[in-house]
Amino acid sequence: MPEIVSTILQIVLIGIALSMDAFAVSVTQGLIFSDLNKKKGLFIALTYAIFQALFPLIGFFIIELISTIVGSAAGEQAGKIMSVVVTYVSFALLIFIGAKMIIEAIISYRKTEEEKEIKKFSVKEVLVMGVATAIDALAIGVTLHSGISSITSIWLHVSIIMCCTFIICLLGIVLAHQIHKLLKGKYEITGIIGGTILILLAIWVIVSHYTGL
Questions:
Q1: Are the CB atoms for 164 and 15 separated by under 8 Å?
Q2: 30 touches 41 (CB < 8 A)
Q3: Domain residues of the chain, as ranges?
């Protein structure tokens, strides 16, 4: 297999692995937003794709800057610290948002039909979740800094990661649409499912950090 094909295949696999959390949240938001349409679905997928590409890029250039100014040893140490910090920040954000979603769904379930508020699409919520799911990708940028031979290569990595995430998030939204049909507008159930997905994702962030999965 030519080296370029092998490299692209490896990056695609990285992109797929990175996009799994964005996929899970795409399913979640596809379930909870009652007024989701094609345009809004594309916005969600594109937002997550951009964030999943942006954060590894930020991580890469932070370590590049530290290594250039202070030295490679300092850059390596900063990378280790950053990896731990972003893991726990991501964990905390996902736990908080997931728990909040479940509590809101339970409260809504106890209300009468007249009191219930159907959850509408929110750009702010999509952006917040974009950050929450992508922040741990800063650590990928740190890893890439020590694993690739040139700055040019990082642009290839993030471009492919963005494309993979966009496609996979679209699939997540389509899947959520089908699940939503089966639930027949039972928004409280979708909120509980969505919140549970986020909490499980938070646990996975910690597990994957310490096991390398």
A1: yes
A2: yes
A3: 3-211
- Round to whole Å and give the CA distance between 148 and 142: 11
CA 2 to chain centroid? 31
151-182: b or e for each residue (b if 16 or more CB lie within 10 Å)?
eeebeebbebbbbbbbbbbbebbeebeeebee
Per residue in 125-157, pLDDT tens?
A: 899 888 888 887 777 777 776 666 566 678 888
User: Can you tell me the distance from the alpha carbon of 211 to that of 213, in angstroms, rounded to the nearest whole number?
Assistant: 5
| In the chain, alpha helices (H) | 3-32, 38-69, 72-110, 123-134, 138-147, 151-183, 187-211
* 36/40 Cα distance (integer angstroms): 6
Percent of the chain with pLDDT over 70: 80
Q: Tell me if 36 sits within 8 A of 121, measured CB to CB.
A: yes
Q: What is the pTM of this model?
A: 0.77
